[in-house]
Structure formats: structure tokens, C-alpha cells
Amino acid sequence: MRTPLAPTVLAGCTVVVLLTACTSGGNAPSGNKTLTYEDSPLSVYFEQLGGQPDEAESQEQARRAEEVTAACMQEQGFEYRPQDVSAMFAEPADDGMPDWDSLEFAEQYGYGATTGEEMSQGQSAEEWVDPNADYVATMSEGEQQAYYAALYGEPQESTGEEEEVVEYDWTQAGCQGKAQHEVYEEGQVWGDPAYKDLMDELSEIYNTDTASDERLVAVGKAWSQCMADEGLDFEDPQAAQNSIYEAHGAIPFAEDGTQDAAAIAELKEKELTTAVADRTCQIETRYTQVQLEVQFDKEQEFIDAHKDELEAMVAKAADK
What we know:
Layout: H1 13-19, H2 43-48, H3 55-75, H4 103-109, H5 116-121, H6 133-137, H7 141-152, H8 174-185, H9 196-209, H10 214-229, H11 237-250, H12 261-285, H13 287-319
Helix pairs in contact: 3-8, 4-12, 7-8, 9-13, 10-12, 10-13, 11-12
Signal peptide: 1-28
Keywords: Signal
């Protein structure tokens, strides 16, 4: 039987991902200003295209998604109690947890791989409870499999090929896929086929053009040298973090679901050492600031080349 996952609230993720290209948090100032993601030149267009909804809009979207899911499940012959989405948006108490991308976090929790239990002890968020758990518990195993197939879609069969990437298809993702599509994706202007080439070009900027920029190549070398001075050999910060998560995943689980305590303790020491060196080197080399400088320069070049098309997208979004 497949283990159910807690519902996730997705937004117009295509544009969100593009306009907030994946980088770590802020470091030292750039000139007289510390750049942040809010400084993105494309954010002006993003906001006019719908942008990230405010809390009230997000809560309403989540509520609608739960209602669509419930109606879909009923059509499939199952009961489904919508989750109380207000809990998702409750203001969390200040638990004193350092920012994820801070040196303080690295010193206390590394990358969060072996320190998950410690992190959870410091957080006050309530554990998610599936309102349908009691209903599902009354089913046979076969009925449960049918329930989760209706809710999440049939499990994807692996071909055994390494580096296999399965493209997401909402039509194969059950009632939750249907709900996510209707509430968050359908009718969004950035999914309009008329702008596919434009969005593909923007994606290429983030995936290729930015990474090959000589400024980013230079700061990457500086970061690697800084890490080498600490006795660590990594190409970039992502590789450093991945090394810990891969090592953590390689520690086998016992029948009771636990991992060998001695192996975890040894890896934790390595995780903290690596994470602290990584964060320190990012700060010393201005790694993230250079990333943002390059990203924003590329965005401005994109705007200059496609201003009319972007304004047409904004106008079309306003008409919807």
C-alpha cells in the first residue's frame, strides 16, 4: 500500500520557479546595497501577471482545491473530508530557529539531514492530521490502494533506468492533480501556448546563460578554493549539500524504522563541518550576491529584448 502524503498547496509554480531562480540566501552587501530576491527586475511583470497571492487569496485557493478534490473523490465512489486549510496559514510562534541560510543555522543544524529530530523539537508547528484517516482505516488493503489511486493517481512504474525523469501530468495525478490544475494552473497566462517560446527562452537564461556567466564561474572557483583550504573538495554548494543527503540516505534502516545511531552521529559531525565551511565560504566570496547580480542582469537583458511581449502578457492577464 502506498503511504499517503499530506496535501500540498501549489501556486503558479512555473513562473514562480523561473522568477526566483534557486539560490541560497543573502550574504555580504553588494556595493551599498544587499540584493534580495525582491530586487528582481522581472518581479514588476510577475506581480502584474498574478504573482504570489497574498495570504487571504492563498487560503481561498487552498479551500477551493480541497472542495474540488472532495467532489472528484465522490465521483470516484469515495468519501473525502476536506482538510481545514486555516491551520496551514496560522501564524507560527517565534521558536527562535535561525534562518535556514544563516551561519547560525549551519552551526546548529548543518543542512538539516541528520538533525531533523533536533529541528522538530525546536519548532512549535502542529503535526498535520489526516481528517480521512479513520475512514481509510476501515477499508481493506485493496480498497485503500484504490482510494489512494483515486486521490493521487496510479503509482508510476519505474523502468529501472538511471537518471529517469518522469514529466508531471496532472491528468495522471488523481483528484489532487485535477484540483491543482483547476485552481492553480488552468487559465494562467504563463501557460498560454502563445507564450511558450518566450517562457522557454526565459528558462534557458536561468538554466544555461546564468550558469555560464564568467562572474559566476569566477565566484564558483573562489568558493571551491575556500572549501579546499578547509580540506573539502566540492564543485559548488549544491554538491556539498547533496553529499550529506546522499550519505544519509545510504545508511540502512532497521525493521523498526531507525538508522544506526553511531553512523548517524559520525555523519552529523561531517555535516556540521561541511555546512559551516560552505556557509562561511559563501559569505566570504559573496557567492549569493554574485548569483543575484548575474541573474538580475540577465533578467534585464531579457526584458529589454522582449518588453512588448511581456506587456502583451500583462494585458492578456488583466483581461482574464
